[in-house]
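Justification of resources, computational component.

The compute hours requested in this renewal are based largely on the per-chain cost of generating structure records like the one below. Each record pairs the submitted sequence with a full structure-token output. That output is archived, and it is also reused by downstream analysis tasks.
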Amino acid sequence: MSLEKISVSSGKGFKYNSTVLHETTKQKIEAQVVSVPDGKSGGVHHFDLVITKYIKNPSQSWDDAEVSKIRFSSDDTKSLQKLLNFLKVQKDIAQYNTANLEITDKSLSTEERKFVQNVLTYFDTPEKKALLVQAKSEDVNNLYAAVKHAKNVKALKELDTLLQDEARELKLQAWIQDNTWVFGVEYINFFDTSKIGIHSDSDFIVESLDEYADLIELKKSEFKLFNYDASHKNYYPTSELSQAIGQSIEYLKVMEDHRHILKDQDNIKVLKPRIKIVIGRSSLMNDKEKETLRLLNDSLHNIEVMTYDEIRARANKLNEHYTQLEA
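The structure output for this chain reads:
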């Protein structure tokens, strides 16, 4: 808006700055800022923003028009601020519609801004968009957590289906790789196992919270973990489980032998790596077998054997925890 379209007048200490926002032969909308004087100090007491709407017949003059007014005072900063925020939001929404959205909270990180912009595509009304455009960092984090939780709940249902699927092995492996959250917040990154000479599709390197590399090895869920020795009345590892443990010991050695190369060439830090072997179904084990598995894990060094049912139980417990936090 140019200055020549703003008229300035005064009287009895009041100053009036006014401009016409909209005008036709039937309607005119005028904005006026009134500077109200302070009788004691001689300065300005406060400002008023007055929006005046005139309605008339085309043949009438504006002096004969029907007049209605809305007043915003700087004494009432809340209502004025709401108006300013509303106008700012409309601008941001317009920018979004032209693919040039500017998120209003400058404290948001690049990833948070990208997340808001992606989510905006699923909000199809100005009201919903306005809420997101005004999003604060805390709001984005809460929204991200809610979306993440919903995704995890869906993933858990997918796992239940896969565990009932006879041709599930490759699908289970893909599910684990896509949902490492089931291990908690323990792992934050993935690496290609071929970097350390492991070429199995069922194994992958993960970066733990302390930035060192560990390994997850996935075996078939139908493998039995223990056989029963009737003569000694105890359980012992099956050939499949023994082979998986022996393979893991070899992998630990390979990772340690290549640790300097991995650090220099791939920025993978290796120091006393740990391996999780996911194998079998604990739902098919009796109490004595479960006890044997616990004792076996206690005796192993940097190797943990866990079943697919334990993966499912961990995932369910995490989802229950987040559900309680939201309640």
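Residues 1-75 form one domain. The mean pLDDT is 77.
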